Amino acid sequence: MNKKSSKTSSSNENYSHLELFNLGKIFFKEKKFIDFRSKGNRSGFEAIKDINLKIEKNTFVSIIGPSGCGKSTLLNLIAGLQAPTSGKIVIDGQAIKGPGPDRGVIFQNYALMPWLTTIQNIEFALNTVFPAKTKADVKERARKYLRMVGLEKASNKFPKELSGGMKQRVAIARALSINPNMLLMDEPFGALDALTRSYLQDELLSIWRKNKVTVVLITHSIEEALLLSDKIVLMSSGPSAIISEEISVDLERPRDREKIEQDPKYLKIKMRLEKHLLRETRAVEEVT
Amino acid sequence: MNKAISTRLTFAVAILSLLIFIILWQVIAQQGLLVKNFPGSFKTIGSLIWWVSDPFFDNGPNDLGIGTNLLISLRRVLIGYSLAVLVAVPLGVLMGMSKLAQSSLNPYVQLLKPVSPLAWLPVGLFVFRNSEITGIFVIFITSIWPTLINTAFGVASINPDYLRVSKSLGASKSTTIRRVILPAIMPNILAGMRISMGTAWLVIVAAEMLLGTGIGYFIWNEWNNLSLENIFVAIIIIGFTGFILDQFFGFLQDKFDYSI
Lengths: 288, 260
Known about the structure:
Chain A is α/β, with parallel strands linked by helices.
C-alpha cells in the first residue's frame, strides 16, 4: 500500500475516497471433497447485493440496519478480510485486492491477543506493518497511542486485567497506531454498558477530530449513528440486503449529547430511521 | 475458616491417613491375612531407606541402584517424548490449518491412537536391533498422539478474531503462525504434552520389563528375586516421579492460562 501518494492525491481528483461498485457477496456452502449432486450451480447464501456507495475523505459514516442484514459482511469486504463475489471496492482510485494497513479495523470483541500486554498488542501491529522500524521507535510510538486513549499507565497490563471499555480503547489505539486513512469499526461499543459507551463515543469523536481519518462505523444504535456521523447508510433486511437509503446528518459539530436531542432536525432524522428499522426488522421477524 | 489453619488441617489429615494406612498394612501383612510372606510396611520402608540412601551404585545390569535405573528410564522418556513433541506440534499445526493435511493424516491418527504402544515393541526391535533405541521409539509413538490431536484441535478452534486482526494488518503466513497461532494454542499444546508425558511414564515401565535396565526392568528383576518389598519401593518411586512430572506441566499450564 502506498500511503503517501494516496493521501496527497485524493482531494483534487474526481473520485471519492472510498467507492463501492455493485458489490455483492454470496456465501457458498463449503465444497465437499467429492460432490455428486451439485454440478456447477452451487447455491449459496446471498448476504448483500448491488451495493453502491461513495464515502468522502475524513468523513464519519455509519452503516445501520436490522440484525443479520450483512452489515458486518460489508465491513469485512471493505477491510479486505473477505473477497466480494461480484463488484469492486475502490480506494483513492485503486481497486483493493485484500487487507492493508491503510485501513485499521476494530472488532466488537476487541480482539486483543491475551498473551500480550497492552503495549505489546500495539507493538505487534506496528512490527507487522513497519518491519523496518527500530525497537525503540516502535515502543515510543506504541506509548504515544496508548497515551492518546488515556491508558499509558496500563501499558504492562494484560487484557484480562482491563475492563471492556479499556480493552476497546487499546484496540482503537492499535488500529490508529499504524496511521491508517480509514478506520473500520464493527459495532465497537455493542458489548459495553451505556455509560462506558457514551464515554467511548465522545472519546472516538475527539480522536477523529484530531487524527484526520475516515471512519466507517457499523452500528444498530440510531442514537449512536446520529451523534457521530456525517452520513448514515441504511441497509435493508437480509438476505440479499441492499442500501435502501443514504441520509446526510447536517447537524452542527461539536454535538452535545444532551442538547442534540432537542434539535428538531435531529428528531426528524431519528423518526425516519426508526420507521425504517422497524419496517425492516418486522420483515425479518415475520418471515422467520 | 482462616486459610493458614485450613492448609495446616489438610496437611494433618493427610499425615494421619498415611499413618493409619501404614499401620493397617503392617498388621494385615504380619497376621498373614492376605497371603503368606506378604511384606509389611515396616519392611518396605526399611527397603526404601536402603535403596534411597545409596541410589546410584552400579554392579552390572542386573544390580543397579534405583536412582541409576530411574535416570535410565527418565532419559529414554525425555528423548522419545521430546522427539514426539518436535514432530507432533508442527504436524498438528499443519493438520489444524489445512483441510488436505487433516483429511489425509486423520485416518492414520484415528487408527493408530487406540493401539497400545507396546505393540510397536517387536517392530522396533526388528528394525533397530537395539533395545535402547526401541525403548525411545516406543515412547515416541506413545507421546505423539495426545500432543498431535490437542495441537490440531487448538488450531482448528482458535478465536477467529486473532486471525482477522493478523490478516487485517497484512501479516504474512509465517508471522501469523509464529506470533499469533503458536502463542494462541499454547494452552492446547501444553494440555496435550501433559497427557503425553503421563502416558509415556506409564508405558516406559511396561516396555522396560521386556527391554532390560530402567525402573521397569528393576521391577521385573525383583519379581525374579521374589522380593515384593523392592517392587513396592519401585512403585513408590515411580508414582512420586510421575507426580513431579505432572506437577511441572500443571505449573506450565497455569503460566499459559489466558482465560479471564
